[in-house]
Write a structure and sequence with these properties.
Blueprint: H1 12-24, H2 29-34, H3 39-42, E1 44-47, E2 50-53, H4 61-73, H5 76-85, E3 111-112, E4 115-116, H6 117-136, E5 150-154, H7 158-169, E6 179-183, H8 188-195, E7 203-208, H9 215-232, H10 238-241, E8 242-245, H11 249-255, E9 262-263, H12 281-287, H13 289-308, H14 315-330, E10 334-339, H15 347-359, E11 377-379, H16 391-396, E12 403-408, H17 418-435, H18 439-444, H19 452-455, E13 463-468, H20 473-494, H21 503-510, H22 521-527, H23 532-541, H24 582-587, H25 589-594
Parallel strand pairs: 5-6, 5-7, 7-8, 8-9, 10-11, 10-12, 12-13
Antiparallel strand pairs: 1-2, 2-13, 3-4
Length: about 600
């Protein structure tokens, strides 16, 4: 425990929040808006191109004051300074936590163990930009002299989720004459389907593994090697069709990759915080160096806001404190993240690792068992798809699910009224979740009495509205950094180690052989106890013990590219204008902001 910082449940602000919760638990958002005509304007904050409306949260000025006091009592200001300074705040591994250095501009200085790491970061970024440019313009060719037209990233965890999310989010800016695929699962189907229609002579693999020993990654990498050599027939081809993101030069060279094409990163970069490091090599190839630099600029803008803004105006701090408020006082177990932007379809999955791997901890930094709840389960789906799936439970179910809505004023693909309908949906959902519909309002619509209970919904469901002008590389950087620092804030409040490694992967390594040979139950028994359940199910799932020789699927001729646009816009029933509280209609700055021209 840091000097002067009490255990969480003994901090004065924590106990004041407990008492305050008893006052707030039955207060409805309808009453909060009715009592404050300017609520929709006052409970907002803006920075780095993002606008946060948190007026539809079950908070008052007193709530915010107490949450900020909790942050102060938790030593959050000092912890932020320590992270940006390069102190070894990852106490279980005795490492710095310096993903912020990955986007620090040239000329700045961050010293770790006596070395300025900023020049090192930019040296790697420059090499990434040079290599990506040579692939994109055709100067880098495959072994047979053919241009590289397909890039396949092989990685798992942060070496996959970040690159996949970034590619999907920024596909609008990507090189459309190239194909990008991602392989992570040790299930062979993942690799087979990713490569089924690709020409090995035109395909470049990026193998992303810091140690170059990760089970899933190296299993897939060896299959990729066999797939390539089966078609090309020359061991020297590996050097032209494979590059590595790793720090293990010996294993990289043994694989056949030229270590001149190995891009490194540092032990102070956690996997789930690495998408803007060399792990982003596939992103640089897809969108180009200039767009990648713009994304880094977005990250840095949010970094600077986080380290300098007052906590009651600080976007990441506010989001983090709201998560603590609902998780620990209201007992909310999950957080829904709903991007109303199809390009962000993988953003919730990315945030799952970022949040749940960081704050899914049951002991404090001192090793003591916590006596309070920590990280929420994070999940989500793009709007409007989720409206026809799980929103029913959020509106009328018995579980409180706070939600973050993410939307943009302008679309990257103007098409008729589609974007107007999309914005109308996200605004209507936030309104309906907040204010609900009373039995009197349902009856006023002429609903038969037996159906009134079924069409009534309570409301009082909290949401954040995060708005930006347009989805750009810079905006993506600010969004990711927003959640990174929100996770940091939560971890500091809970006094847990948000940086330690994955228990799941360690258990996996103990219970399987290395990637060079297939795992077997016999091998499992040698290194870790096997339960009777595993003993029972293993024979059913392991029909063969010998290795099946790899045989690439027949390559299909690539279909001629076509362009078609087909989409439908759907709307959900929301509170009619006449049934909303007048104060809600008049004070919602978000509605006016999102629909402006």
């Amino acid at each position: 425990m840091a000097a002067g910082v009490r255990p969480l449940t003994e901090r004065p602000a924590w106990n004041a929040l407990r008492r305050h919760y008893e006052e707030m638990r039955s207060v409805h958002l309808r009453a909060l808006f009715s009592g404050d005509p300017r609520r929709g304007e006052r409970y907002t904050a803006e920075a780095a191109g993002l606008y946060l409306d948190y007026s539809k949260h079950r908070v008052t000025d007193e709530t915010v004051r107490l949450l900020v006091a909790l942050a102060e009592e938790s030593d959050l200001p000092a912890r932020i300074d320590a992270m940006f300074r390069g102190d070894k705040i990852n106490v279980t591994e005795h490492r710095a936590v310096l993903h912020v250095a990955l986007r620090t501009p040239r000329g700045r200085s961050i010293v770790v163990d006596g070395e300025d790491v900023v020049p090192q970061v930019h040296a790697v970024l420059d090499r990434m930009a040079d290599f990506a440019t040579r692939v994109r313009d055709g100067r880098w060719t495959g072994h047979t002299g053919k241009r590289i037209r397909n890039v396949v990233n092989i990685g798992i965890g942060g070496s996959d989720l970040g690159p996949v999310m970034a590619y999907e989010a920024l596909r609008h800016y990507s090189a459309r004459d190239m194909t990008f695929r991602f392989v992570s699962n040790v299930d062979g189907t993942d690799f087979a389907e990713a490569t089924r229609d690709l020409d090995p002579a035109e395909t470049l693999f990026i193998v992303s593994s810091k140690t170059f020993t990760t089970l899933e990654t190296m299993t897939n990498a060896r299959s990729a090697r066999e797939w390539t050599l089966h078609a090309v027939g020359d061991e020297r081809a590996v050097a032209r069709h494979f590059v590595a993101v790793s720090t293990n030069a010996a294993e990289v060279g043994k694989f056949g990759i030229d270590t001149a094409n190995m891009f490194g990163f540092w032990d102070w970069v956690g996997g789930r915080y690495s998408m803007d490091s060399a792990i982003g090599l596939s992103t640089v190839m897809a969108i180009g160096p200039e767009h990648f630099r713009a994304m880094l600029a977005g990250f840095h803008a949010m970094d600077e806001h986080f380290r300098s803004a007052p906590f009651d105006r600080n976007l990441p701090v506010l989001l983090g404190l709201l998560s603590v408020w609902y998780r620990d006082f209201f007992g909310a177990q999950t957080l829904g993240v709903m991007p109303y932007e199809q390009y962000l379809k993988r953003f919730p999955a990315y945030l799952q690792q970022l949040t749940m791997e960081s704050n899914g901890k049951h002991v404090t930094l001192d090793g003591a068992a916590v006596d309070y709840d920590t990280g929420p389960i994070v999940w989500g789906e793009p709007g409007t798809n989720g409206q026809h799936s799980f929103y029913q439970l959020i509106h009328q179910g018995t579980t409180l699910v706070p939600c973050d809505f993410i939307a943009f004023h302008r679309t990257l693909n103007p098409l008729g009224r589609h974007h107007d309908l999309l914005l109308a949906n996200v605004l209507a959902q936030a309104e309906a979740l907040a204010f609900g519909k009373t039995a009197e309002e349902v009856r006023a619509e002429g609903t038969p009495e037996p159906l009134v209970p079924h069409r009534t919904f309570e409301g009082n469901r909290p949401t954040s509205m995060i708005l930006a002008e347009r989805l750009t590389p810079e905006t993506l950087g600010t969004l990711v950094a927003l959640y990174e620092h929100s996770v940091f804030t939560q971890g500091v409040i809970w006094h847990i180690d948000s940086w330690s490694r994955r228990i799941g992967s360690r258990r996996r390594r103990r219970s399987s052989t290395r990637a060079s040979s297939p795992p077997s139950l016999a091998a499992c028994r040698k290194c870790t106890p096997v339960s009777s359940s595993t003993n029972s199910s293993a024979p059913r799932s392991s029909a063969t013990r010998g290795r099946v020789p790899f045989s690439p699927p027949p390559r299909r001729r690539r279909a001629a590219s076509t362009s078609s646009i087909s989409s439908t816009a759907t709307t959900t029933r929301a509170t009619s204008r006449r049934s909303r509280p007048p104060s809600a209609r008049s004070s919602c700055a978000t509605t006016r902001r999102a629909t402006r021209r």
